[in-house]
Amino acid sequence: MLPEPHRLRRRSDFSSTVRRGQRAARRDVVVHALAGTQAESLISDPGPRFGLVVSKAVGPAVIRHRVARRLRHICVSLVREVPEGTNVVIRALPGAATASSKDLDRQLRSGLRKLDLLVSVGNSV
């Protein structure tokens, strides 16, 4: 489960991230991100915050919830790799219903790398 301080909850946070942030589209997901001082956060924890958009186009409720659970699990592993103060909205596309968790992880990380928001953790040379 994604801890409360790392979740986007308010509609205004989703809207500002999607409208004012950068976007990286992949086959099964679209990653929207609003980084740094642009992200207006009223939460005291400065860590990154994630939000999910899984519409009915993805499939029936059971499939949508499965996709959301997979994406949430991926977000938990990304908390330490995304810079503090970043808002990330992940929009699932219909192909996400049949994509494996490994594919979704790879696509999400690829989108964050394209936006230059993925920081290496623990691998210093």
Automatic annotation (TrEMBL):
Swiss-Prot/TrEMBL catalytic activity: Endonucleolytic cleavage of RNA, removing 5'-extranucleotides from tRNA precursor
Recorded GO MF terms: 3'-tRNA processing endoribonuclease activity; ribonuclease P activity; tRNA binding
One cellular component (GO) term of this entry: ribonuclease P complex
One Pfam family linked to the record: Ribonuclease_P
EC number: 3.1.26.5
InterPro entries recorded: Ribosomal_Su5_D2-typ_SF, Ribsml_uS5_D2-typ_fold_subgr, RNase_P, RNase_P_CS
Record keywords, A-Z: Endonuclease, Hydrolase, Nuclease, RNA-binding, tRNA processing
BP GO annotations: tRNA 5'-leader removal
Top-level lineage group: Bacteria
Keyword Nuclease: yes
The protein's enzyme class: hydrolase
NCBIfam families: rnpA
Protein purpose: RNaseP catalyzes the removal of the 5'-leader sequence from pre-tRNA to produce the mature 5'-terminus. It can also cleave other RNA substrates such as 4.5S RNA. The protein component plays an auxiliary but essential role in vivo by binding to the 5'-leader sequence and broadening the substrate specificity of the ribozyme.
Family designation: Belongs to the RnpA family.
Assembly: Consists of a catalytic RNA component (M1 or rnpB) and a protein subunit.
Name listed for the protein in its UniProt record: Ribonuclease P protein component
Gene (name only): rnpA
